[in-house]
Amino acid sequence: MVKQLGFTYLVFPGATHSRFEHSLGTYYLAREVSTRLGLEEEDVVDVSLAGLLHDIGHSPFSHSLEDSMMKIYGKEHLGVTVDIIEGKTPRNELSDSLGDHKNRILKILKGEAGVLSRIISGNGDVDQIDYLARDSYYTGVALGAVDIPRIMRVLSIYRNELCVEVKGLPSVEGLMVARMLMYRTVYRHKTALIASSLANDALYSMNPDYDEFVQWNDCDFMAELKKTDLKIYDSLKHRKIPKGLIVRQSEREFNELKQELDGNLVSSQYFKSPFKNEVLKVLTEEGIRPITDFSLIMQFLERELEGMGLIIFKKEEELKVKDTLKTRKIQYL
């Protein structure tokens, strides 16, 4: 099993749901939305299968290890997903079973299939709708509540653009607010990020063969970690997490801070903004207009999801680290 929220279960014990569950949910929503939009049956099947397979390339503990994946293999989970669907990974029975659907699914996942791609990926997509509702439920954080039936009823297609009818704007704004609040309280929780960063460092040291790594689940990673780095294994297994602070800085500023604190840090990691620049379109009587013409929610979301840095240190270094931040007038969380 690959946990949907990585090490977030160390903070929210109920967050042990899997990527498989989320993929089933995305499949269901993709099929519902595409059927409601009146797409051809072949397109409905293709976009549904794309929803089912969109996360098949996730590494153990989901996004936690992606920085090291990029450094070692030059690809994140989407790149691995493409490799699996194309049949480039060992013991792969999936690729041939997809038949004529394979190339169309790949186009959808690569963002090359217009409305079909937009259903799966973009602001307000079915992937986002499912993970917000699901993650909110399993963490017990009600901030991620989403009015799924209403959002599906107000989606429409206009000139090959997926858009939301103007009457459904409040529901879509609610979705964006939910995403912003879930990032603030769950996805960027400091303790979970510290655990993820330690695991990320451990993977980089392991440097496993790609064909082996793409077959790992959470248990496989932890078993290998126990053999290669017992200290980090013990930290993650028994929640012996070191101290850490989050700073809101550009990546350049964060790299400068790391250099100044060199010798005081156990680890560090920069998290780039997950904000999607594609602006959702609103359908009015005059045609389609960007949601930014009606609402400020995208501006708030972009600001909240800006990049940030995480510095990790031993308890005895805490005062020195905080003094450095205070001297440089850097706010931290």
The order of strands across the largest sheet is 1-2-5-6
How many domains is the backbone divided into? 1
Number of helices: 17
Binned strand content: 5-15%
**What sort of overall outline do the alpha carbons produce when their principal axes are compared?**
globular
Rg measurement, Å = 21 Å
CATH superfamily: Hypothetical protein af1432
| Classification by helices and strands | alpha+beta
**Average of pLDDT:** 93
As a percent range, the share of helical residues equals 40-55%
Quaternary assembly: single chain
Poorly predicted sequence stretches spanning 5 or more consecutive residues: none
Task: List the secondary-structure elements in sequence, H or E.
Answer: HHHHHHHHHEEHHHHHEHEEEHEH
Query: Major β-sheet, in short?
Result: 4 strands, mixed
CATH fold call: Hypothetical protein af1432
| CATH architecture label | Orthogonal Bundle
End-to-end Cα distance, whole Å, is: 32 Å
Please report the total strand number as a whole number.
7
CATH class: Mainly Alpha
Report on this model:
The protein is of the alpha+beta class and 333 residues long. It has a single domain, classed as Hypothetical protein af1432 (Orthogonal Bundle). The protein is built from 17 helices and 7 strands. It has helices at residues 19-36, 41-53, 66-73, 77-85, 94-97, 101-109, 115-120, 126-139, 148-153, 169-187, 190-206, 210-213, 218-228, 230-237, 251-260, 297-304, 318-327, and strands at 155-158, 161-165, 243-247, 267-271, 281-284, 287-290, 308-313. The strands form 2 sheets. The chain has a 4-stranded mixed beta sheet with strand order 1-2-5-6. A 3-stranded antiparallel beta sheet has the order 3-7-4, with helices on both faces.
